[in-house]
Structures are given as C-alpha cells and as structure tokens.
C-alpha cells in the first residue's frame, strides 16, 4: 500500500476536523435554549402564583381592617409583612379565627407534621383540640419554609419577635372570645411564647440538619 492509499484511506474513514464539534455545539445550544425557555415558563408560573397569593392575602387583610373589632391587628400585621413573612405562615396564624385563611391552606394539601411537644394541655379539652390542630398547621407550614419563618419569628438579637408573639396572642384571645372562655391575657401570651420558642428551636435544628446533609464529605 502506497502513501497515496494511506492518505485517501485516512480521509475516507474520518471526518473533517471540527465538524463533529460544531454539531455538538449546536445541539448544546438547542438544549440550553430549551432549558432557558422551560425555566422562564416556570418563573412566570411561580410569579403568577405568588401574585395570586399576595392578592388573596391582601383581600384577607382588608377584611380585617374593615372590621373595627380587629383594628389592633393592623400594626402587628404590617410589621410582620415588613419582615417578608411567608404568606402561608401569616394565613396559618389567622386561620384559627378566619375560615377563608384556613380553607386556602387546606386546599394546598400541605403535608401534616406534628410538633414534638404539645402546649395546649393547660386549657379545657373543648379548646385544646382546635388549638392543637392550629399549632399542627403552624408547624406544618413552618417546616416547609424553615429559613423564612425563622427570620419572621426571631428578631435581630435572635430572640422571639414580640410582634409575632403579640399577633398570635391576639388571635388566641379572639378565639377564646368566640368560645366564651375567659382567662388572663398573660396566660395566652405565655402559651404563644412557649409554642413559638419551641418552634424556633425545631426550625433551627431542621436547618442545621439540612446543612449537614448538603455539605459534601471531604475527599481523602
């Protein structure tokens, strides 16, 4: 076999330099474009969903503000919103006394997670049961967004935010009013503080455990 045969054979069995790379590059470009379009679509859907949730939340807040009985809620809700409180967590707080808020969360089918500790035993059984369901709802919503909820219920000093404690306390007091149950407001505040303190600890542990799981092991 002569040199000419080798050259021709090599050219016939191979491909022009750069041709395969160009094809792969074009395919990658198509894939990236498709991924970008898919991500843009998801972003638009999430934005529409968030806007819908914000609109619903705004309507609920307006309902409270239109009722003079709930005028005391205004400042506390405004302060909670200024901390970028997750809408589901605010709805969960209000759900104890507001059926629409409870229904919205029920329709979302949020996975149910029970708090490791109950704080409702100091109240009569007819009150303990709905209060227990309320704390389960708060716990379930919180564990779905641990970082944002933790930032909501703690202040800059990493202590319980007094506004959130007060908001929960006012909601519980209103619930007791509906049920014609009287107790010292200090007892209600203590109940709210105990629950939120336990919740904050559980969320901190959840976040730390997630960080441990997400941290790759060192290569040896």
How would you characterize the overall build of this protein?
This protein is mainly alpha-helical. Helix content is 73%, strand content 0%. It is built from nine helices and no strands. The longest helix has 48 residues, at 19-66. The chain starts with a helix and ends in a 6-residue tail after the last helix. Mean pLDDT is 81; it is low at 3-13.
Secondary-structure map:
Blueprint: H1 3-13, H2 19-66, H3 73-82, H4 87-94, H5 99-107, H6 125-144, H7 146-153, H8 162-178, H9 185-214
Helix pairs in contact: 3-8, 4-5, 4-6, 6-9, 7-9, 8-9
Assembly state here? single chain
Q: How would you classify the helix and strand content by structural class?
A: mainly alpha
Provide the succession of SSEs: HHHHHHHHH
How confident is the prediction overall: mean pLDDT?
A: 81
Helix content: over 70%
Amount of beta strand? under 5%
**Rg from alpha-carbon coordinates:** 28 Å
- Note the main sheet: none
The number of helices is 9
DSSP summary, beta strand count:
0
Separation, N- and C-terminal Cα atoms = 53 Å
Unreliably modeled segments? 3-13
- Give the overall form: elongated
């Amino acid at each position: 076999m002569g040199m000419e045969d080798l050259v021709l054979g090599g050219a016939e069995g191979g491909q022009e330099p750069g041709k395969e790379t160009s094809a792969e590059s074009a395919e990658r470009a198509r894939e990236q474009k498709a991924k970008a379009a898919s991500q843009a679509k998801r972003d638009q859907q999430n934005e529409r969903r968030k806007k819908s949730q914000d609109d619903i939340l705004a309507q609920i807040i307006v309902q409270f503000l239109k009722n003079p009985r709930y005028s005391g809620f205004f400042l506390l809700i405004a302060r909670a919103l200024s901390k970028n409180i997750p809408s589901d967590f605010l709805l969960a707080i209000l759900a104890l006394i507001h059926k629409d808020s409870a229904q919205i969360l029920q329709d979302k089918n949020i996975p149910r997670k029970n708090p490791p500790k109950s704080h409702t035993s100091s109240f009569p059984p007819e009150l303990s049961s709905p209060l227990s369901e309320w704390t389960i709802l708060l716990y379930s919503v919180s564990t779905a967004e641990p970082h944002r909820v933790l930032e909501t219920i703690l202040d800059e000093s990493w202590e319980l935010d007094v506004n959130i404690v007060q908001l929960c306390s006012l909601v519980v007091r209103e619930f007791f009013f509906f049920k014609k149950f009287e107790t010292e407001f200090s007892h209600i505040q203590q109940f709210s503080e105990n629950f939120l303190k336990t919740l904050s600890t559980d969320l901190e542990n959840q976040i730390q455990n997630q960080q441990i799981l997400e941290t790759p092991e060192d290569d040896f």
